[in-house]
Amino acid sequence: MAHTSQFREEFSDWCIGEELPETHALMLVVSDYVKVIEIEETLHTIECLGRVRVRGNLQRFFVLCECKESIDAKLVPPQIWPHPDAVPWLVVTACDDAPDADEFSTKLKLLLQSEGKTMSDVQAMFSTDSESPAPTSLLRAVGDLLDRIGKTSSDGGSFRRLRIFSGTFPTPVGEESFDLWNEQAYLMISECDCSDKEKKRRIMESIRGPALEVIKAARDDTPDLSSRDYVKALERAFGSAESGEDLYFTFRLMQQLPREKLSDFVRRLEKPLSKVLQKGGISLADKDRVRVRVEQLLRGADARADLKLLQLRLRERLSNPLFQRLAKLCEGTAGVEVIQSLGINAPITMEGHS
Question: Which residues form the Paraneoplastic antigen Ma-like C-terminal domain (predicted)?
Answer without folding.
Answer: 165-321
